[in-house]
Every structure is written in C-alpha cells, then in structure tokens.
Design a protein that fits this description.
With about 150 residues, this protein is mostly helical. It is built from four helices and no strands. The protein has helices at about 1-70, 80-95, 100-120, 125-145. α1 packs antiparallel against α4 (about 125-145) and α3 packs antiparallel against α4 (about 125-145). The radius of gyration is 29 Å and the shape is rod-shaped. The N and C termini lie far apart (about 80 Å).
Length: about 150
C-alpha cells in the first residue's frame, strides 16, 4: 500500500497534464475554426463590395445607354459609341469579379441587348426588362450564394 501512496499523486498529476494538453489542443482547434469562418466572412464581404461596385457601374452605364437610345437621332452619335464602349468595359469588369457563370452570362446578354437596341435606334423598354431582371437575379445569387431572394429583399 505504500507504493500507492507515492504512485497515486504521480498518476493524478500525469492525468492532469494529459487532460490539460487535450483541452489546450481542443481550444486551439476551436480558435482555428473560428478564425477560418471569420476569414471566409471577410473574403465574402470583400467579394460583395467589389462586385457591388462593378454592378453599380454597369447599371449606371446601362441606364445611360438606354436613355441615349431612346433619344437617339438617326445619324451616328459618337457619344453613344463611347457609352457602348464603356458599357462593354463595365461588363468585362463584372466578368472578372463574378464567381458564377450565370452572372457572367446574364451581364453579357443584357449588354448585348442594350447594344442591339442602341444600334437599331429602337429601345423597347419591356424587351430590356427580361435581361435586366435576369441580371439582377444572377447578381444577387452571386453576392449572396445560398440565400433565397424573397419579396422582402426585392
């Protein structure tokens, strides 16, 4: 029984060290998971901010092109040509910033429809609303993947 008197405290100390090391490793695991989630959230926020800037620029130019196409005279307008060039550059910005192919495609189709309307000299507003709505939906899906768009978010 004398050996348990000296061996018992040593075993309890060893068990305490093992439990402390295990707790420390588990704590580090939790901290690394939290850091990873925080980094993912920061990256997603940076992506949304970059994409939001590109989308707003594109939409501003799209509105200018549509307005210019409605008010266009039959002759060639160098201002409209410049706007179309800027619109295609803005579409390329979205192409680079987008994470999803549906957004890239929707931006291209909307820009192509706007360019077609501007070059024909006929801007059919309702015909532009379909590509515009699909562009909005794709932009929302790219900025907020996994979130459903509801009537409250529109």
């Amino acid at each position: 029984m004398g050996s348990w008197g000296t061996l018992g405290p040593a075993l309890l100390s060893l068990a305490g060290v093992v439990l402390g090391a295990g707790g420390s490793l588990f704590g580090q695991y939790l901290v690394s998971r939290a850091s990873e989630r925080q980094l993912d959230a920061q990256e997603a926020a940076a992506h949304r901010a970059e994409l939001k800037g590109a989308v707003l620029k594109f939409l501003g130019l799209a509105a200018q092109v549509e307005k210019a196409a409605l008010a266009r005279a039959p002759d060639d307008d160098p201002g409209l040509d410049r706007l179309l060039d800027e619109l295609w550059l803005a579409q390329a910005e979205i192409d680079l910033a987008a994470r999803s192919e549906p957004l890239r495609g929707a931006a291209y189709r909307y820009a192509a429809r706007l360019a077609e309307a501007a070059q024909d000299g006929t801007s059919d507003g309702p015909a532009l609303r379909g590509p515009q709505a699909r562009f909005f939906d794709a932009a929302y899906a790219d900025m907020w993947p996994g979130h459903r768009r509801t009537a409250d978010t529109v």
